[in-house]
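User: Please predict structures.

Assistant: First:
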Amino acid sequence: MKSFQIKLQLLIISIFLISCSKEREKEKQPNVLFIAIDDLRAELGVYDNDYVISPNIDAIANEGSLFINHYVQVPTCGASRHSLLTGYRPWKQIHLSNRAIERELSDKAEDTVPETFIHRFKQEGYHTIGIGKISHSADGYLYEYEEEPSQKRELPHSWSELLFNSGKWKTGWNSFFAYANGENRQSLKKQVKPYEAGNVDDNGYPDGLTTEIAISKLKELKNQNKPFFMGVGFFKPHLPFNAPKRYWDLYNRDSLPISDNPNIPENINLSSLHESGEFNQYALGEEKASLSKSVSDAYARKLKHAYLAAISYTDAQVGKIMQELKESGLDKNTIIVIWGDHGWHLGDQRVWGKHTLFENALKSTLIVKSPFINHNNKKVDHIVESVDIYPTLLELANLPLKQKLDGESVVKIMQQPEEVSEEVAYSYFKNGISMRTPEYRLTKYSREDEPTIELYDHREKTFEHKNIAEENPEIVTELMSLLEEGNSGLYIKK
């Protein structure tokens, strides 16, 4: 009997020690700060654009891994974020829509299979905080641009807290299209310019208020033992290109470059491009964009100036958050990700906007910094996709996946350059699928308008100015089988 009691006591002590060990292990789990920046193409100083003033984001990139060739799955906000958050490439037509998250996730009951990677962190005991635009909605709640805000969350199971300050604009969507005087694109019936240099401080636009919330929350979190996942979503440089005047003053407009590729690519059908409808909604712009004629160089330079001012404004907000992260000591245990949800044509191929299957719309910013790995390969040349971020974050946090994803972790190539057997990124839009390899971009459309196949050579610096598919049938044939591997059947008729 005595022997049994001793064994029972030892068992209880063992269980207690294991429990304590697991609790300590959870306390050591890394935090995650995920920063989503709307419409940020690879247009930063650290991407060898020395005219861009982005010192704070550049500093993070120089301490982490900068992905030179990161491509999104869909060149539109909501659909791109759906792929990012779920780790899946599109396989339904709704997955190409800004309503992808609303239609696919918002009404589902909670399951053991997570709705997003944020939910996966929450399942593991993380406190998850969403601030600003992480999913498609400007503030995380479902309602139309001109409706009163609802209390229905776009992601019902991902966030422990959902925070936003709409300030004088009163709603998230008003804030998204905000002007410094408290008006917005909707309230002014689109009778607005596509840019503004506001005589205000950083809090005179919504991203400054988002930064204040993030800083305040970090001050709280530094005293908690529980690991956290914080998502911070900035609106700029999304249209309208509005920023405090002091960020405009950083630039000499006359010295700014404009597009190296302002013309329609040779040997394509115009249906592969578009007439810049989103941009042209801003009715008081000095010129309208059109495929039939480029805007003037002077106006193109003004718009480039506006876009860069918006980037520098966002960069300053990132800098403030990084300062608080360091002052609190949280930087020593926090993984940082900076992600642009897609690229943007700044007059390239006569387009102002996203919504194409060209490099300009699909290539965006991706930076990952972990305090727990040696970022030997600071500039990662490998082709990566947004769907790779989900498994990468889980591996960095030592968390297991619960399901098979389309993406693959890129932790190994962050640590050390290595040979990758198959570098490829798939993107989808306009009844087409586009595939990027280190050498080529191959795009195939399911449409009547010919040509339906486009091939662009990326072996040297190129701007996709000429479709070379017809003169290189052997390359098209060789690549087509690889392209078909990314085809769900909804985009290309076999």
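Second:
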Amino acid sequence: MIRRLRQAAPRALAAATAATVAWLIAADLIGHPDPIFAPSAALVVLGETRGRRLRQTTEIVLGVAAGVLVAELVVLTLGTGAVALFVVLLLTITPMLAAGASSTLVVQAALSALYLVVAAAPQGNLIPYRFADALIGGAVAIAVSQLAAARRPLAPLVTEARQTYADLADLLGALRDALENCDERAAHDVLDRAQRMNGCAERLHAAALAAGETLRLHLRRRRRLEQVRNVEATTHHLDLVVANVGVLARNAATLTRLHTSTPPELGRAIRALANAVRAAGDALAADLTGRDDPGRHAAQADADALEAVRIAAKLLESEPPPPVTMIVGQVRITAVDLLRGIDGEEDVLSRVDEAIGWHP
């Protein structure tokens, strides 16, 4: 409980600060009467996942503007009441749904219109206070959300990348130990851990989107956007690697359940694959930080992945039991997806097949 409170405290502080500052700017500095949309817009924007807040702010402003415009025109024409409420909501929601607007945009527009009809009917003029309030709230939320990341915008992404690849390499290490010890319980524990890692690629992608959003707001650092885009492209292959490791773990659990002796080469192959994963994470982090040569780590990952394939392929020469054959095949598939995340699609399959000994 204490740990969760500590984790939630920065977000709660940011939300409270942004809402209060937005209110003060709109009410005291600008002089808007009843600037309720300023803090509410700030809270909605901060509630959105980082990486989508610029788009979210635009949608909120457009939604509030559309809702306010429709509501004020209808109320000035029909007055307040159930009929006006029905007409306002119908005219606000229908065009947005037809245009494919996001749920955020539709809800914000509808709530803005609803508030005007029910609680704050216009007094015979069309002063765009609420539009300006939404803009103020969104701008304040963006500023507050970027304060912590402004100094080191890539640091959270680097941390997430290193942790993700390190966890995956550790998982492969635990899988190797379970196989070498023919430990069925340990193999099932690895399988459970593999299933819990299914969202790691999505988290890395979210961290990349957040870093990209921060960099776009810093003109001098926009040149680093290319590295962030590389991470975004890598996450697709990483997701496949995680799924492949899950299948590896399932086959390992089957092998240990049969109490079939594990060839020592299998442990060596998985160790090499774990080293390749760790080196791939180092390459990604080095590319982001610029403190090391990413090419050196990428070359090491390449060499380790191909070595894992070579070692595993030799097991097929002795007609191993089916679970071993399936693990060998999965080592190959994992190596292919890992290398595609490092080198792209070009020439990966031919190099892996050559390592196995397959020739066209």
